[in-house]
Each structure stands twice: as structure tokens, then as C-alpha cells.
Amino acid sequence: MGPLDLEYDTTEALEFQEKLSEAVSAIEGDNGYAAHHPTERQHVVSSLKHVQAEPNEHAPFTKSKAIDYVVKPLLQVVKRLKQSLTSEAAKGALSAFRKWVEQSIGGVLDGIF
Hints:
Helices cover 71% and strands 0% of the residues. The protein is mainly alpha-helical. It starts with 10 loop residues before the first helix and ends in an 8-residue tail after the last helix.
């Protein structure tokens, strides 16, 4: 599948980047996650930082990249850490990502999260 036709210069795109940054900071700062699930945490942080490093049309998202590098890692945090502040930050990033995708191209990720 080719790249998703996302608009990178919108309020929604900037909001996603802000929420993603907040989520990464929360995950990196969660000592319990680091102590009890270090390998998982490292994978999540690595995936999300990959997205942070390439948030533009020159390294566009495909549907599989969106799922593997954004949706799955953030959902893993939500599932693992349930009612924590870190989980809430991950939920915020997921919500912002959904808004950005829907604003740009509609419901291509419907049913995934």
C-alpha cells in the first residue's frame, strides 16, 4: 500500500506531534514501566521516536507504518498501564492521531482503534 495522503501543515498534525511528544516523555519517565517491562518499553519508545524523527511528507506514513509505529505501541501502553498518567498521555496521542488522519483522509483507520 502506498503512502497515506496526510496533510502535514494542519492544526491537527501539529496537535498530534505535541501529544506524541507528551506521550514519549511520559513513557520515558515511567519508572514502573521501565522496571517491570523494560524490553516492551524500549520498543514502544523506539517506535514512537521513529515517528517523531520523520513527521513530514518526505517520509510519509503508510497504513502499515501508522499501525506498527503509532497505533500498536500506544495501545500497548494503554493496555499495560491502564489508569495511569502515562496511559492517559498515550490515549491523548492516539486521539490526536485519529483526528489528524480523519481530517486529512477520512476513516482509513476505522476498526483498528
